[in-house]
């Protein structure tokens, strides 16, 4: 992979709340995000820090992570504590679409995508570790991530894919024939076929120089933007090749130890063939652990589960 270009920071917008984990641009140039206290926020005028404004849309009563806009303007919300939710952006109503799967509570629901046929796919990052112990799953390399499908008729979702390494971001291809899944713990993107002779099968899509988190597609034909929450760690790659008992012991230690994110910030954009369109990075960044990225006008907006605001950066020229 070629050397990354410079990720150029412009300004920071404080939200007065911890952890805007996913940032989702809407058709009007605003940005939606969920924060640690359970609120869903809408951010206005992020291009001008003096005019920026924060509006509260709803409270989920849990911990919102991935967001997905529906055609009617409502939001799909993956809540790490409450499951898969539908949130009204007009009146703030919160409705639970699914809170269990395969006979167990739906926990650590991470990202969702709605397809044209009315079905919803969602990722579950881990069945062994909760959100507050996420690093335990990364270290233990449990492979307990899942991809779920909720049919147009609703009900309980079905498990369509298992064995994912911390399943995270999720988007559909431009033609709707496959999904792209971010496997944070494996530093890769995975393709899940929806149609054709390989429907229902997963295959490699792109290897990455870091740990991917949320994914966001820029328009129906635009690239897929990938937030890199951390660079690759060679020592972690070696640990993942050791025996399960060794990894479990290391995970217990990691959960107890204080965590400090890397100072390297990065984002990547790929096309529907998995080819890199943009790769931007910044070393010794003051804004750490980028978990989401979206484009609004001439800017990239970065979210972070670690920070208490969003970063606004220069958008690269089209390639």
TrEMBL record:
This is Strictosidine synthase family protein. The keyword Translocase does not apply. Belongs to the strictosidine synthase family. Transmembrane segments: none annotated. InterPro entries: 6-blade_b-propeller_TolB-like, Strictosidine_synth_cons-reg. It comes from Streptomyces musisoli. Keywords: Glycoprotein, Phosphoprotein. It comes from the Bacteria. The keyword Membrane does not apply. Residues 116-195 form the Strictosidine synthase conserved region domain.
């Amino acid at each position: 992979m070629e050397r990354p270009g410079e990720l150029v920071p412009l300004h920071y917008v404080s939200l007065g709340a911890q952890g805007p984990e996913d940032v989702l641009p809407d058709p009007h140039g605003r940005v939606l995000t969920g924060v640690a206290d359970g609120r869903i926020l809408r951010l206005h005028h992020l291009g001008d820090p003096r005019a920026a404004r924060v509006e509260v849309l709803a409270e989920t009563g849990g911990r919102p992570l991935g967001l997905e806009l529906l055609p009617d303007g409502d939001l799909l919300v993956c809540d790490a504590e409450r499951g898969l939710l539908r949130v009204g952006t007009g009146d703030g109503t919160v409705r639970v679409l699914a809170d269990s799967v395969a006979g167990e509570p739906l926990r650590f629901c991470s990202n969702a995508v709605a397809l044209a046929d009315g079905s919803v796919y969602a990722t579950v990052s881990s069945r062994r570790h909760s959100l507050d112990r996420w690093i335990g799953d990364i270290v233990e390399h449990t492979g307990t991530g899942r991809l779920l499908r909720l049919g147009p008729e609703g009900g309980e979702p079905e498990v369509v894919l298992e064995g994912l390494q911390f399943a995270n971001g999720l988007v559909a291809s431009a033609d709707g024939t496959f999904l792209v899944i971010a496997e944070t713990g494996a530093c890769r993107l995975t393709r899940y076929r929806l149609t054709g002779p390989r429907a229902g099968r997963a295959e490699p899509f792109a290897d990455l120089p870091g740990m991917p988190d949320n994914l966001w597609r820029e328009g129906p034909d635009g690239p897929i933007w990938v937030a890199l929450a951390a660079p690759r760690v060679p020592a972690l790659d070696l640990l993942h090749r050791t025996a399960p008992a060794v990894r479990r012991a290391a995970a217990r230690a990691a959960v107890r130890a204080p965590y400090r994110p890397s100072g390297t910030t990065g984002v990547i954009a790929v096309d529907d063939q998995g080819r890199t369109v943009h790769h931007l990075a910044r070393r010794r960044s003051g804004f750490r652990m980028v978990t989401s990225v979206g484009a609004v006008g001439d800017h990239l907006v970065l979210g972070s589960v670690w920070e208490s605001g969003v970063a606004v950066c220069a958008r690269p020229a089209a390639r």
